[in-house]
Amino acid sequence: MTKTTEKSSEDEEATANLVEPLLPSNSEEEGLVIAVEDIERVTLDQELLVDESNWEHGEAQTPGCRNSFFAILFLIQFGVVVSLSVSGIASMGSFESDHFELHKALLFMIALMGSVVGVSAAIMLLLLGPLAEMMIQVSLVLSPLVCGLSSILSLAFANVIGAICLAITSLFGVLYAVHVWHRIPFAVANIATAMEAVKENKGLLPLAYFFTFCAVGWTLLWAFSVVKVFEEPGWIKECSTKDDTDSDCHLSPKGKTILVALLLSLYWTAQVIKNIFHTTIAGVVGTWWFTPQEERAVGCCNTAVFDAWLRSNVYSFGSICLGSLMVAVLQVSQFLVRMARQRRDESGNRIGQSSLLLCLLQFFVDQLERLMEYINSWAFVYVGLYGYEYWTASSKVYQLFQARGWSLILNDHLVGRSLALMQLLIGVVCSGIGIVLGLVFVGSPVAGLLLGFVLGIALSGILFQVVTSAVDTVVVCFAEAPNMLRANHPPELSDRMITAWRAAYPNECGF
Fold this sequence. Notes:
17 helices, mainly alpha, 74% helix
């Protein structure tokens, strides 16, 4: 009987790991117990305790698939594209060339990609560690400095209009740097806290490359499906014979619909892959934030990473599909508007460029798409933390920042600027490595330079996705439950976060 009870208890604990973390429900009795426990655990510095009763907290949702309709719709379109791609692959011949030494090119790519990954990880740990503050400062100074020097150079070449535009841009850059300079310590504190979570859950780094592999594989499958569509007679083209030797073919209305559907499929699936990863990171960092050290899983590929990944792919998959679809629709709209602006008449003139309506429409769609992606980045943090369905998560995060102050999320721009500068630096370093490897393996330094730079930018961007998602989650968790950082982690982390927050926002810090 005891063994049966113990087994049942273990099963319940395993099931509980799959439940979205992290805060229990906010019933009055449980809330009182949790508040007392938190106060007992946060005994190192009573002055830093925060009264969290002034805002509503998230609640862990019971296991269950949410927004299931959109998950089913996504799987249907994915299955259709995969079926088309399999047919497209079967109809293509193999590629052979007597002048292409495949083994040397393969060794070159392996060596270059391995070097890029190593360099990216080393530079990230260095520059996002002791040099994080310097990187943010340099990113703020560099942009207006470059614009100012470019303005002087344009003036030297008698380009007065260009010099004036660059000078104005430089001035705005200086004003922005002065305005946000006092926020740098809080942005650095966010990065430091996020990096602590990433270092304790190193399995996120290989997971980043797994999702990249999925994205590349999906793009190839989609390309093969497009080949299949174009090969099938009558699917997208209508042809009329002019004479015995010539025929006139053009896209049919059905063909245009098929191509737009394929384009939507491309963008939608890419967004789903990206947002699954983002939601997984939010779940991992949230588990790290809310779980005491003695109860946290340890190791590179610990259960926290696996459980968060499983929750994102099961319970929250429909919510991710819904939010991703909204962005994908806007991305397709962007593409169609741009295509409309590129239309030419019989004389070769672009008739869409002069259309004010199309110009305004493109601006509107571009801004809406950026806004939608920005909203998603915060909503999916709440999805990863608590397992809310998409609309509830969006509403909850809005209410949280309304209660805690919108200035909290403005530090996201500072982190993004520094990461962009780091990507450029890594691209330059990797282009130098590419030159050496290009000479050794394929005898082409130019190819090595270009590939090294492109791979450096791309692969470092993958690693930095881990950092940006972790920073977003830290921002939400700090706004949601600052006491839990103090309770579950070394006091230095919460000291730094709260001190920097008080210094950056003395009039609205709330504690």
